[in-house]
C-alpha cells in the first residue's frame, strides 16, 4: 500500500502552486474548476512520483495554524543531501519565509530544517 496523494486547502491557489514549483520542483497538472461550487484545484507532481493536491473554494474557514497542533503537522521533502537542505533553507529565508528550526541534526538522526510557507503550513526539508 502507498499514499496516493496528500491534499490541502489554501487561500491563494496560484501563489501556492508557484511556491511548490519554484522551491520544490513541482510540476503542475492542468487546473480543475467545478463551476457549480467554484471549487478549484491542481495536482502537483514531484520527481519521485509523490503528488500534492492543492485546493480552494469560497467560504473556507481559515483559522490560525499553530505549529504544535493536532492533525497533520507538516509535509517533508527530501532534497538529497545536507548541502541541498542548507541551500534551500538559505534561499527560502532570503526570500522572506520563516525558518522555525535548523538546519540541524535531530535526536533521531535526521538532518533537516523546517520553514513556514505562505499559507502558514510547516514544510520540512530533509536529506
Describe this structure in words.
- With 127 residues, the protein is α+β, with helices and mostly antiparallel strands.
- The protein has two domains: 1-58, 2,3-Dihydroxybiphenyl 1,2-Dioxygenase, domain 1, CATH 3.10.180; 73-127, 2,3-Dihydroxybiphenyl 1,2-Dioxygenase, domain 1, CATH 3.10.180.10.
- The chain is built from two helices and nine strands; from the N terminus they run E-H-E-E-E-E-E-H-E-E-E.
- The chain has helices at 13-24, 82-94; strands spanning 6-9, 27-28, 32-34, 39-45, 51-56, 75-78, 98-105, 111-116, 122-126.
- Strands 1, 2, 3, 4 and 5 form a five-stranded mixed beta sheet that branches. Strands 6-9-8-7 form a four-stranded mixed beta sheet, covered by helices on one side.
- A hairpin with a 5-residue loop joins strand 4 and strand 5 (51-56).
- The longest helix is centred in the last third of the chain and has 13 residues, at 82-94.
- The chain is globular and about 50 Å long.
* Proportion of residues in β-strands: 35-45%
In one word, what is the shape?
globular
Number of domains as seen in the coordinates? 2
> Termini separation (Å)?
24 Å
Which homologous superfamily in CATH is the superfamily of the largest domain?
2,3-Dihydroxybiphenyl 1,2-Dioxygenase, domain 1
The CATH topology of the largest domain is given as 2,3-Dihydroxybiphenyl 1,2-Dioxygenase, domain 1
- Overall helicity: 10-25%
Mean pLDDT: 94
Low-confidence stretches: none
At the first level of CATH, the class of the largest domain is Alpha Beta
Number of helices: 2
Q: Classify the secondary structure makeup into a structural class.
A: alpha+beta
Over all CA atoms, what is the radius of gyration? 15 Å
Largest sheet: 5 strands, mixed
N-to-C series of helices and strands:
EHEEEEEHEEE
What's the total number of strands?
Answer: 9
